Amino acid sequence: MNINLSNWFYVIKNCSVDNTYKMGWGKSIVECCFEDESSELIHFDRISKKMFKYYWNQTIFFNLQQGSNPSKPPVFISYVKSKIKDYQLKYGYQPIEFERIENKIELDMTYLNSLLAENVSHRFLKISGKEYLLYDLDNKNKTIKVFNPSILKEYSDVLFEVINYRWVQILETYNSSPRISKKIKITDRGGVKRKPLGKFKKYLSLIEDKCFVCGEDLKDDISIDHMIPFSFMFSDDLWNLVYAHKSCNSSKSNKIVSESEIKKLELRNKQLLEILENNEIKDKNYSELKLSIENNLLRKFWISFKG
After folding, report:
1. Which of 133-142, 223-232, 292-301 has the lowest mean pLDDT?
2. Hey, where are the domains in the chain?
3. Are the beta carbons of 113 and 45 closer than 8 angstroms?
């Protein structure tokens, strides 16, 4: 069956809501298709984990209310808050993105999947009694079969924008917090101070003598660039840093880079890790680089910020 994008837009803009579940559900499906448009079948495990990620990041940084009743938050949100509490009691109260610590969080997927089967999966398809054919639903086996996932990937940027906009509209009815639209993207952490990046030269110089952006010789025109912009990450990670001409750094500006650049950096990171091991450099930055490769952090953050 050919997917009708207008149906997706209509459902997102007009679905009835008393919490933000449907936005998290829809955004998770689009993100799954963006990651792998060749697979039509999506298990609830993937959707539940992505929804948990969205709610973890919005809650641990901004504590946004996700439902109409402040004294009785949606059950999925209560579960997220309980996991945040457990994590902070064990590791401290510094807010941190789920992508960085997901290997430390054990999720009850059976429980989360049952919540989605009961409260979201079938309701997302219906508006005023009419059902819109966006996917085939198998609640028993906890799967959906998306029609033409490659189309969802092709139009993912537009779909993410529409979903985020609708999510903001819903949250504005529940929260008085300012600049909610930026908080949905986890990009509004004002007051974060940027630190000098000179300490990373000893690592980058082991592998790079050309501009990572344009490929030309660096000579004396050297700067250290965040491939995923600092304004999204708010951190300095070796696995996200490259040498670049100052002009190339400036021209890249504050934009999310393409997938080809992410693939190029993923390869660079693997090569750099090998060089550090061969030189017996196994310090904190080495450990963080290794962890980022093992947990696919670069790609996970890139996909999150695209959304």
Report:
1. 223-232
2. 5-184, 198-306
3. yes
